[in-house]
């Protein structure tokens, strides 16, 4: 087995080479021994040319022990190899051969023998050996011990575990099989209790897994001990202790008797008088032994926060403790005062900053705009937050206090600010800069002459300067910052620079890319041989390699080579290339119109997917997806690549066939599309798509027009451009920020296609959190079209994701004969929603109230705000990783005949 660390072979080879060199020098020499050849072999095969850069020895160098030792150390520092052997051959001209063994990785872990324990539980107990992790013999021995501990906790006290590593020929991976002989379990003979209350809590023994007749499992016993403490806690004994006093094994019949000791300690009774405050708010504070004064202070703070959040701004609490032999009685006397509504927040004493800036810093403007007031739990945090802001702007002695002025219907909050003197930087000096101009260095920091002086800012600037030097390829720079007071509130700031040395990348070594092509990797590297070793570009190169999605690990190591140079070692680990997924779901054929879901026709929905990654070593991905349901059938083949014809566009080539059933028509479509996706900056992205599609209507329940003739293949060639502005904190479950997208599509009659239309569509979303428990959401959508637009390219709306007062596709103009929707050339939709988290212990659950307003118009000239329809409703939200699970009930406020009553929607995903 290969060794981790510096192997004995390498050490022995270096000593042997040194001995040979010494022996050679001991003999009379007319010429110095020289290196005639340097060979590097990895796993017995000659290494790639770039790996030769790891050995800083070249032909013609003197044959000396120190350079060989330095080369071995350099190879080990890369972290790529577990063993190095050096062999020297020749008596006059020396041929050096470096034999390298890569680190072995664990490909798979299996368990054999009578395990009797689920595989997932065994894997959960393994820490030192994991799939895709580095392998070594010491780790294997520790893993055996970890598995024995898992078995012990399950009751197999004398289990035996033997690990067997199986190398995979031709690869630096191996499989590990753990052969397990679990042995026998003991059966619980009896469970006796000592101490505790006179009678056990009702039903305790029945709820325990540790009881007579059951297998003895130490893990289950630990859980039962916690259960005992919890049950005692519900009876008012939060500090109760439970432990095993004795274990009585009897090997003759394989049984065990357990003696459990319970110490309840004192009972803790909590009384809150004068206000409706739940006891559970403060009880957790007393579950452990704490200083009583601290506990009372924390409890009072929790009670005041609770009451202030409910509008009792002037609430007060007095607390005391009554102690007896076996009881601790905590008493909170609460005076809630009058419930007060905060009408406004004003400031007094502010001269250094505009009040609008202060409001923005404290986050007051949105609250006043939407609610007309401020939550009581936030009020008392405003003064310390304001003091922190002033301190960051050079006012170390600022003070802020809060006052209340009665007003009709509420109180006005007055925050009185004593700004105090400001500290300012009179002069800013950088001493001893020589490599980088002083003006450039000053532009990289926050401190400015005439600007505010704070010690924290000066320290941050010293760190910024060191980072700036690193990002210029200069290593070893040290920055010492100091400030000297020169007058009242004036400081001279000095940064003492001890500059390091410029470093350039002499060589770049890439290892681990068995499939991925080297030219693709080089394109992700923003640094080249001969460039300065800029730390920011090295870090960004690592991010770009990770973004390719084909590597499960990317490491970039810098190895100094002397004389101002270093070798950049890029270590890669490629992930699995194949992925197969299947999915099964349920859907209703028609829109659910009743809470009695069982009265709706429910049918299955199937999805199958196959993905082959890193195609041709280009980080491209081939995916085949099939979907089948009542309303749609779809087969898609997609080719995704990180570039588009060598340009910095992520590209996707799609070919698809689909059949879909809509409210008033159904269609078959086949097509091709090519899309290019590019990041413009941190928030803005661009998506360009060229598409060809042929569509045939297989049924049409409205009067057909020239472009809607049933069974007539309608071909369209189009190009579209989308701009996307993403500034939300989460794409699936956003809680703040905004999103904007705009797309324009031009379908032109190329290649004998019938298409001749122009469409545009824009959407804006806004998310505003209020006080941590309320979220306001708003979105607006609008679209316009012109030209000969067939029904399957028109705008439709209605349903859970657009207008919740109409059925799916049911908003807008209808066919006069069939009353089916015909779609339109214009759309305007607005959605407003307020979500509230009613339960602090369940943050994933929210209640919602929504208002939707919108319509679809047959012609652009029909667009008008007076014709917008209105819907109102409420719903329930449960946050999942794929977006919220939504249950909505909506009413159209101006329903047409036959469409009265609420509409029920159950959906995963956000309407916004």
Description:
It is a single chain. By secondary structure, the protein is α+β, with helices and mostly antiparallel strands. It folds into eight domains: 8-102, membrane protein fhac (Ubiquitin-like (UB roll)), CATH 3.10.20; 105-181, Roll (Ubiquitin-like (UB roll)), CATH 3.10.20.310; 187-263, Ubiquitin-like (UB roll) (Roll), CATH 3.10.20.310; 267-335, Ubiquitin-like (UB roll) (Roll), CATH 3.10.20.310; 342-418, membrane protein fhac (Ubiquitin-like (UB roll)); 424-501, Ubiquitin-like (UB roll) (Roll); 503-574, membrane protein fhac (Ubiquitin-like (UB roll), Roll); 643-908, Beta Barrel (Porin). Helix content is 18%, strand content 43%. The protein has a 16-stranded antiparallel sheet, with no helix packed on it. It has a four-stranded mixed sheet with strand order 2-1-4-3. The chain has a three-stranded mixed sheet with strand order 5-7-6, covered by helices on one side. Helix 1 (8-26) packs antiparallel against helix 2 (65-77). The chain is globular, with a radius of gyration of 37 Å. The chain starts with 7 loop residues before the first helix and ends with a strand.
Please give the CATH architecture of the largest domain: Beta Barrel
Helical/strand content category: alpha+beta
> What is the count of helical runs?
15
- Helix coverage percent: 10-25%
What fold name goes in the CATH topology slot of the largest domain?
Porin
CATH level-four homologous superfamily name of the largest domain: membrane protein fhac: a member of the omp85/tpsb transporter family
What is the name of the CATH class of the largest domain? Mainly Beta
Biggest β-sheet: count, sense, barrel?
A: 16 strands, antiparallel
Net shape: globular
Low-confidence segments: 1-30, 366-373, 591-600
Could you give the count of β-strands? 40
Distance between the termini: 57 Å
Arrangement of strands in the largest sheet: 25-26-27-28-29-30-31-32-33-34-35-36-37-38-39-40
């Amino acid at each position: 087995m290969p060794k981790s660390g510096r192997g004995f072979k390498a050490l022995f080879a270096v000593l042997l080479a040194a001995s040979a060199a010494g022996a050679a020098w001991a003999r009379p020499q007319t010429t110095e021994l020289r290196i005639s050849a340097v060979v590097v072999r990895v796993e017995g095969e000659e290494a790639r040319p770039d790996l030769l850069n790891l050995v800083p020895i070249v032909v013609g160098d003197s044959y000396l022990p120190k350079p060989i030792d330095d080369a071995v150390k350099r190879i080990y520092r890369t972290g790529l190899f577990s063993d190095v052997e050096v062999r020297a051959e020749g008596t006059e001209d020396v041929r050096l051969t470096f034999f390298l063994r890569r680190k072995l990785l664990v490909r798979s872990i299996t368990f054999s023998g009578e395990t009797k324990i689920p595989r997932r539980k065994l894997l959960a107990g393994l820490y030192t050996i994991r799939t895709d992790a580095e392998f070594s013999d010491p780790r294997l021995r520790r893993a055996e011990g970890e598995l024995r501990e898992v078995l012990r906790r399950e009751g197999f006290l004398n289990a035996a575990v033997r690990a067997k590593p199986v190398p995979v020929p031709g690869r630096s991976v191996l499989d590990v099989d753990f052969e397990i002989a679990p042995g026998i379990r003991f059966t619980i003979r009896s469970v006796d209790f000592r101490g505790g209350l006179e009678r056990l809590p009702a039903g305790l023994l029945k709820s325990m897994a540790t009881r007579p007749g059951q297998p003895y499992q130490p893990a289950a016993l630990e859980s039962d001990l916690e259960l005992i403490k919890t049950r005692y806690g519900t009876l008012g004994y939060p500090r109760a202790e439970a432990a095993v006093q004795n274990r009585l094994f009897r090997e003759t019949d394989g049984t065990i008797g357990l003696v459990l000791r319970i110490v309840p300690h004192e009972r803790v009774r909590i009384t809150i008088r004068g206000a409706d405050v739940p006891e559970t708010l403060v009880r957790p504070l007393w579950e452990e032994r704490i200083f009583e004064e601290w506990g009372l202070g924390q409890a009072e703070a929790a009670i005041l926060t609770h009451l202030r959040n409910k509008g009792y701004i002037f609430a007060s609490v007095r607390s005391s403790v009554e102690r007896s032999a076996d009881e601790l009685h905590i008493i909170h006397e609460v005076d809630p005062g009058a419930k007060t509504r905060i009408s406004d927040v004003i400031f007094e004493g502010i001269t250094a900053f505009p009040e609008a800036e202060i409001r923005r810093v404290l986050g007051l403007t949105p609250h006043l705009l939407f609610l007309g007031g401020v939550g009581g739990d936030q009020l008392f945090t405003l003064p310390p937050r304001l003091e922190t802001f002033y301190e960051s702007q050079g006012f170390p002695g600022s003070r802020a206090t809060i006052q209340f002025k009665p007003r009709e219907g509420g109180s006005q909050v007055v925050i009185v600010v004593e700004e105090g003197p400001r500290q300012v930087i009179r002069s800013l000096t950088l001493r001893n800069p020589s490599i980088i101009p002083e003006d450039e260095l000053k532009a990289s920091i926050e401190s400015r002459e005439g600007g505010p002086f704070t010690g924290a800012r000066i320290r941050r600037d010293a760190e910024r300067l060191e980072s700036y030097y690193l990002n210029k390829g200069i290593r070893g720079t040290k920055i010492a910052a100091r400030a000297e007071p020169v007058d009242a509130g004036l400081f001279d700031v000095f940064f003492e620079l001890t500059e390091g040395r410029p470093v350039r990348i002499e060589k770049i070594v890439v290892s681990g890319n068995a499939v991925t092509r080297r030219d693709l990797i080089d394109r992700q590297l923003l640094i080249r041989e001969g460039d300065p070793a800029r730390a920011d570009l090295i870090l960004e190169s690592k991010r770009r390699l990770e973004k390719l999605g084909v590597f499960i690990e990317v490491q970039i190591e810098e190895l100094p080579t002397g004389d101002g140079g270093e070798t950049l070692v890029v270590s890669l680990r490629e992930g699995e290339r194949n992925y197969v997924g299947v999915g099964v779901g349920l859907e209703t054929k028609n829109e659910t119109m009743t809470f009695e879901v069982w009265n709706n026709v429910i049918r299955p929905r199937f999805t199958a997917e196959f993905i082959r990654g890193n195609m041709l070593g280009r980080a491209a991905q081939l995916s085949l997806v099939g979907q089948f349901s009542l309303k749609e059938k779809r087969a898609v083949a997609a080719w995704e690549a990180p570039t588009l014809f060598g340009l910095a566009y992520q590209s996707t080539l799609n070919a698809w066939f689909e059949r879909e059933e809509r409210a008033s028509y159904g269609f078959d479509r086949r097509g091709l599309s090519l899309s290019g996706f590019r990041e413009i900056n941190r928030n803005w992205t661009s998506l360009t798509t060229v598409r060809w599609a042929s569509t045939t209507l297989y049924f049409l329940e409205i009067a057909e027009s020239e472009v809607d003739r049933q069974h007539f293949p309608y071909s369209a060639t189009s190009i579209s451009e989308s701009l996307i502005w993403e500034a939300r904190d989460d794409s699936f479950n956003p809680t703040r920020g905004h999103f904007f997208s705009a797309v324009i599509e031009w379908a032109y009659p190329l290649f004998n296609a019938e298409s001749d239309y122009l469409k545009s569509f824009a959407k804006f979303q806004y998310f505003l959190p209020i006080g941590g428990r309320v979220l306001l959401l708003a979105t607006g959508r609008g679209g316009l079209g012109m030209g000969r637009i067939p029904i399957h390219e028109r705008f439709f709306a209605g349903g859970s994701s657009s207008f919740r007062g109409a059925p799916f596709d049911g908003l807008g103009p209808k066919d006069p004969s069939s009353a089916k929707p015909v779609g339109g050339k214009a759309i305007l939709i607005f959605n407003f929603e307020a979500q509230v988290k009613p339960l602090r212990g369940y943050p994933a659950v929210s209640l919602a109230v929504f208002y939707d307003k919108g319509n679809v118009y047959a012609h652009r000239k029909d667009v008008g705000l007076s014709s917008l329809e209105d819907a109102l409703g409420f719903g329930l939200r449960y946050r999942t990783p794929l977006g919220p699970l939504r249950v909505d009930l909506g009413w159209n406020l101006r329903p047409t005949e036959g469409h009265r009553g609420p509409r029920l929607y159950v959906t995963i995903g956000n309407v916004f």
